[in-house]
Amino acid sequence: MRSVTVRVPATSANLGPGYDCLGLALGLHNTVTLALAPTPGVRIEGEGAGSLPRDATHLVLGAAQAAADAVGERLPALDLHQLNCIPLARGMGSSSAAIVGGIVAANELLGLGLSQRQMLDIATAVEGHPDNVAPALLGGLTVCCTLDSGEVLVERLDVAPGLSCVVAVPDFEVATHEARKALPETIPHADGVFNLCRVGLIVAGLVSGDFSVLSEAMRDRLHQPYRAHLVPGMDDAIAAALDEGAHGAALSGSGPTVAAFVSERGEDVGAAMVNAFARAGTTAIARTLPLSPEGATVTMQDRL
Ligand code: HSE
C-alpha cells in the first residue's frame, strides 16, 4: 500500500446524562490521508489549517504511532494530508476524528492487523475517554463502559429513522481538559440516580423511535451545571431549542456547542438557539446535520 484515505464522522458525546458513556456519529466529516513518503510532511486544509502542528506532534501522527507501538511495529516516514470540516475544540469530536483517522489509516497502510476492538482501546487510551472515539470508529449510537483494565466494552446501536441533530456552535473554543477540571470529585447520590434513569431512557427512546422522552431524558446533573459558566447562554440555548419544538437538547461533549434533536424545522430550532446565545453575548452559528450510521471508512487505497 502506498497511501490510504479514511473518512471519519464528527461526534456528539454525553447527549445530556451519558457522561463518558454515550456518543453519536454525525454527518459531518474529516478525511485523513496517510502516505508512505521519503520524508515526513503534514498538509492541513479547512478547520485548523492555521493552528494545528505540522510535525510528529500532530494528533493523527501520534495516534498512528500508538497503533504501530501496540503491535511492536516501527512507524515509517509518513506524509499526512488532512481535510477538516469539523470545528476544533467545540465539543464535536475533532480530536477523536483525528485519532481514529490516524489509527485506521495506519492499520490499513501498514497492515498492522488490529481489530476494531483493539483500535477502540488504543483510541480511548490516546483520547482519555471512549465516548467520542467509539462513534467516530463505529458510527451510530454507542454505549461505552471502560473496564478497570482500561479496555472498553461497547455496544453500537442504530438510532430509529427520522432524527436530525441541530448544532449551535459558538465562536470560541473550550478545551476538554479544562472543562473536565470544572467537575466535582463527588456528587450527591440523588444526582447519580437522576442521571442513570435518563441514560436508560435516552438509549431506549433513540432506538425505539419514541422521541417524546428525549426532552426529559437529555437532562443532566453530572457535568452541565458545572460547565455552564464556560458557555454563556448554554441553559438558554437548550431552553430555546425545546421551546421551538426540538425533542431534546444538551451540551455536546464538553461544549461549547449545544446539540438539539429534531424531526423537522431544524432551521427554526437553530435560529432560536443562535438568538438565545446572542442574548447572553455569545456569537454562534447553527447547522442541521443528519446522523451517521457509518463510522470511520476507508475511502481510497493506492497500492504500491
Ligand atoms: N465525556 C467527555 C467530557 C466528552 O464531557 O469531558 C468530551 O467531548
Give an account of the 3D structure.
With 304 residues, the chain is α+β, with helices and mostly antiparallel strands. It is built from 10 helices and 11 strands. The chain has helices at residues 59-70, 94-110, 116-127, 133-138, 176-181, 189-208, 214-217, 224-227, 234-243, 266-279; strands at 3-14, 18-36, 41-46, 78-84, 141-146, 152-157, 164-170, 248-251, 258-262, 284-290, 297-302. Strands 1, 2, 3, 4, 5, 6 and 11 form a 7-stranded mixed sheet that branches. A 4-stranded antiparallel sheet has the order 8-9-7-10. A hairpin with a 6-residue loop joins strand 8 (248-251) and strand 9 (258-262). Helix 1 (59-70) crosses helix 2, helix 1 (59-70) packs across helix 3 (116-127) and helix 9 packs antiparallel against helix 10 (266-279). The longest helix is centred in the middle third of the chain and has 20 residues, at 189-208. It binds L-homoserine (HSE).
Write the topology of this structure.
Blueprint: E1 3-14, E2 18-36, E3 41-46, H1 59-70, E4 78-84, H2 94-110, H3 116-127, H4 133-138, E5 141-146, E6 152-157, E7 164-170, H5 176-181, H6 189-208, H7 214-217, H8 224-227, H9 234-243, E8 248-251, E9 258-262, H10 266-279, E10 284-290, E11 297-302
Bound molecules: L-homoserine.
Residues 13-14, 19-20, 91, 129, 131-132, 176, 179-180, 223, 253-254 line the site of L-homoserine.
Q: Name the ligand types.
A: L-homoserine
User: Approximately how much helix is present in the residues?
Assistant: 25-40%
The rounded Rg comes to 19 Å
Give the assembly state of these chains: single chain
Classify the secondary structure makeup into a structural class.
alpha+beta
General shape: globular
Number of helices in the DSSP assignment: 10
Largest sheet, strands/sense/barrel: 7 strands, mixed
Low-pLDDT runs of 5+ residues are none
Number of strands: 11
Q: Overall mean pLDDT score? A: 97
What is the H/E string?
EEEHEHHHEEEHHHHHEEHEE
Percent of sequence in beta strands: 25-35%
State the end-to-end distance.
5 Å
